[in-house]
From TrEMBL:
Lineage start: Bacteria, Pseudomonadati, Pseudomonadota, Betaproteobacteria, Burkholderiales
Annotated Pro residues bias: 248-260
EC number: 3.6.1.3
Region (Disordered) residue spans: 241-260
Endpoints of the signal sequence: none
Family matches, as InterPro entries: AAA+_ATPase, ABC_transporter-like_ATP-bd, ABC_transporter-like_CS, P-loop_NTPase
UniProtKB keywords: ATP-binding, Cell membrane, Hydrolase, Membrane, Nucleotide-binding, Transport
PANTHER family named among the record's database cross-references: PROTEIN TRIGALACTOSYLDIACYLGLYCEROL 3, CHLOROPLASTIC
Span of domain ABC transporter: 4-242
Organism: Hydrogenophaga intermedia
Protein's name in the database: ABC transporter
Length: 260
């Protein structure tokens, strides 16, 4: 059974349709990319998947259980099985990096305080943030914030991680380090990862599978591994995105006097 199954999701804000017919599955241990141009609905899709916003229709199944049809107790149990890194890292600003990770562990595990701290230090070491454990988020660089957010998301070793633009705003070397870290997390914990990204090097380096949401037709127009999609030239918009080419021109309007 798929770890995550998304079935015929329709996403809208009021009357405004964002995407329809969104369906895909994520298997244990795979790295799945959510791609598409700005404003096509990638972050909104993640919010539907992690329980922050109900979709207009369709189903989101975590381990075979429909999240939006589940009881509060079932949802709580499902939430313990995934971690999330938000675009802004969303660290608690008045707490140190270590306290941020410990608080997540207090919420998600039955570890006592000493064990939480030991585990938090271990995870911070793993993401290269051991020296920043006692710092407040405001004093961290963008890349360090992302790594601290990642440490918080993976501390309880959830089988599924959602990462919203993990490498956005990072320089190419920090971005590459973060990609390596994501691969390392998958290797060590076997976690599946669903990530939103505009970064071509990341998409090609780490994604095994993915979906491309089209802002114009408001539906997915490609599904597969980014490196295969770019070879297969599946759709001009996907090609433009993955090759960083100018998007295709819209069809020219008929010139006055042209036959209809
Ligand atoms: N709370 C909201 N109310 C109304 N419209 C919204 C809301 N949040 C997002 N939108 C709209 O929904 C669409 C999708 O937004 P979303 O942030 O999911 O796109 P995205 O693909 O993640 O964009 P980007 O790549 O720029 O981050 C946009 O047109 C956005 O303006």
């Amino acid at each position: 059974m798929a770890l995550l199954s998304v079935q015929n999701l329709e996403m809208r804000f009021g009357e405004k349709l964002i995407q329809r017919d969104v369906s895909f599955e994520v298997q244990a241990g795979s790295i799945f990319a959510v791609m598409g141009g700005s404003g096509c609905g990638k972050s909104t899709l993640l919010r539907h998947l992690v329980g922050l916003l109900p979709p207009a229709s369709g189903a989101v199944l975590h381990g075979g259980v429909d999240y939006w049809a589940a009881t509060d107790a079932e949802r709580e149990a499902m939430r313990l099985k995934f971690g999330m890194l938000f675009q802004s890292a969303a660290l608690w600003s008045s707490m140190t990096v270590l306290e941020n990770v410990c608080l997540a562990l207090a919420r998600q595990t039955a570890l006592d305080e000493a064990a939480q701290e030991a585990r938090a230090r271990e995870v911070l070491e793993w993401v290269g943030m051991a020296d920043a454990a006692d710092k407040l988020p405001a004093s961290l660089s963008g890349g360090m914030k992302k790594r601290a957010g990642l440490a918080r998301a993976i501390a309880s070793e959830p089988p599924l991680l959602f990462l919203d633009e993990p490498s956005a705003g990072l320089d190419p070397i920090s971005s590459r380090r973060l990609d390596d870290l994501i691969l390392d997390i998958r290797e060590r914990t076997g976690a599946a990862v669903v990530f939103v990204s505009h970064e071509l090097p990341s998409l090609f380096a780490i994604a095994d599978d993915g979906i491309f949401l089209d802002a114009d037709s408001k539906q997915p127009i490609a599904h597969g591994r980014p490196s295969e999609l770019v070879k297969a030239r599946v759709h001009p918009t996907v090609d433009a995105f993955l090759r960083r080419e100018a998007p295709p021109d819209p069809p020219a309007p008929p010139a006055p006097g042209d036959p209809a």
